[in-house]
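Tokens in:
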């Protein structure tokens, strides 16, 4: 009896093992196979970042290649006179900084720091008290005065107005050029330039009356020498 009882227990144990094992196999066969990710998320992020950096670098190189390099000869009262490479669109201020800045003897008030420089231009910084008319020398012998006058004359022709030689553009003239006009000294010239910088282009010569020191009679007199 005892042997039969052991056989029954053994058979029951085998049945249980078979049932459990079969169930595990069945469930395993129903499970869908895992698909491999197309790429590691970290690697994908790094690739995206690399592509972005490459694109930005290419754009930066393209921008640099489209910016024209110019050369300006700095003379006079700068700390390090000589020829300097600048970018197209740079101004007198940038040229002075490239040459180490102004000396203590430089005539600062006669400079138009906002004026753009050109390739092959010579910038001559005057000394205090020096009466130098053309401190900007343009290529091919042109001067700042001739540039302004030709621009003013051209504007008059284009608008159909009668050309009046010798007039200076109140919107384009430098401090030095304005001082060539009777009735405008150094202080008044600087006031005009400061007004332009703060308010923008002058729309009418009568607008000069908004500047301290320019009365109605003064402006009427200046109209003979100025254009917009």
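Residues out:
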């Amino acid at each position: 009896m005892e042997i039969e009882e052991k056989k029954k227990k053994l058979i029951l144990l085998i049945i249980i093992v078979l049932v459990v094992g079969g169930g595990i196999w069945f469930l395993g066969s129903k499970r869908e196979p895992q698909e491999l990710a197309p790429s590691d998320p970290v690697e994908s992020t790094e690739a995206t970042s690399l592509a972005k950096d490459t694109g930005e670098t290419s754009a930066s190189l393209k921008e640099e290649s489209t910016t024209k390099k110019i050369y300006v000869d700095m003379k006079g009262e700068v700390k390090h006179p000589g020829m300097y490479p600048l970018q197209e669109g740079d101004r007198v201020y940038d040229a002075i900084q490239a040459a180490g800045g102004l000396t203590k003897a430089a005539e600062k008030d006669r400079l138009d720091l906002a004026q753009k420089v050109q390739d092959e231009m010579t910038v001559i910084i005057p000394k205090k008290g020096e009466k130098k008319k053309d401190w900007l020398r343009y290529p091919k012998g042109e001067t700042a005065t001739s540039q302004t006058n030709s621009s003013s004359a051209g504007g008059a022709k284009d608008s159909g107005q009668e050309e009046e030689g010798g007039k200076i553009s109140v919107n384009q003239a430098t401090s030095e050029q304005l001082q060539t006009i009777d009735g405008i000294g150094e202080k008044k010239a600087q006031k005009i330039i400061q007004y332009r910088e703060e308010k923008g282009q002058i729309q009418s010569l009568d607008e000069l009356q908004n500047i301290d020191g320019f009365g109605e009679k003064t402006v009427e007199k200046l109209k003979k020498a100025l254009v917009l």
